[in-house]
Amino acid sequence: QLQLVESGGDLVQSGGSLRLSCAASGFPVDYYSIGWFRQAPGKEREGVVCISDTGARTTYYIDSVKGRFTIARDNAKQAVYLQMNNLKPEDTADYYCAARGFADCPSTVQENYFGAWGQGTQVTVSS
Predict the structure, then answer these.
(1) pLDDT reported for residue 70
(2) Taking a C-beta distance cutoff of 8 angstroms, is the pair 29, 52 a contact?
(3) How many whole angstroms separate alpha carbon 18 and alpha carbon 123?
(4) Could you read off the pLDDT of 28-57 as tens digits, one per residue?
(5) 110 has a pLDDT exceeding 90
(6) Number of C-beta neighbours around residue 108 at 10 A
(7) How close are the terminal C-alpha atoms of the chain, in Å?
(8) For strand 32-39 and strand 11-13, is the pairing parallel, antiparallel, or unpaired?
(9) Distance in angstroms (rounded) separating the CA atoms of residues 31 and 38
(10) Do residues 51 and 62 lie in contact, with contact meaning Cβ atoms separated by under 8 Å?
(11) Averaged over 70-98, what is the pLDDT?
């Protein structure tokens, strides 16, 4: 069974950078499109960005992260990364990765489109 584990979350000052990792096991990660989601304290979970199974397409679901967040995959390492630059306090959240097999990323965020989910990693951005 496909399993996902996130890592890389930390406490960082505003303007700093973090790279989150989503490590896959159980099946080759190149079968799956991978989406990143986040949930801020007291708020609902929201989609952030998704990369297609081939890596050819990136879909952003939040305008505020465009130009700051990038997603990439390294199938040889069975991992997908979220590079977050110029972090802001409003980026504070628990971040999750999720997988959808044999399909591209959805054009609009759909949580039920994804099957396997990780347990999350915490990102805190101070002022």
Answers:
(1) 97
(2) no
(3) 9
(4) 888 999 999 999 999 999 999 999 988 889
(5) no
(6) 9
(7) 41
(8) unpaired
(9) 23
(10) no
(11) 96
Q: What pLDDT, on a 0 to 100 scale, did the predictor assign at position 28?
A: 87
DSSP string, the chain: --EEEEE---EEETT--EEEEEEEESS-GGGEEEEEEEE-TTS--EEEEEE-TTS--EEES-GGGTTTEEEEEEGGGTEEEEEE-S--GGG-EEEEEEEEETSPPPSS--GGG--EE---EEEEEE-
Q: What is the mean pLDDT of residues 17-34?
A: 94
Residue at token pair 């979220």 = 82
User: If you search the block for the tokens 């050819």, which residue do you land on?
Assistant: 56
122 token code pair: 């915490």
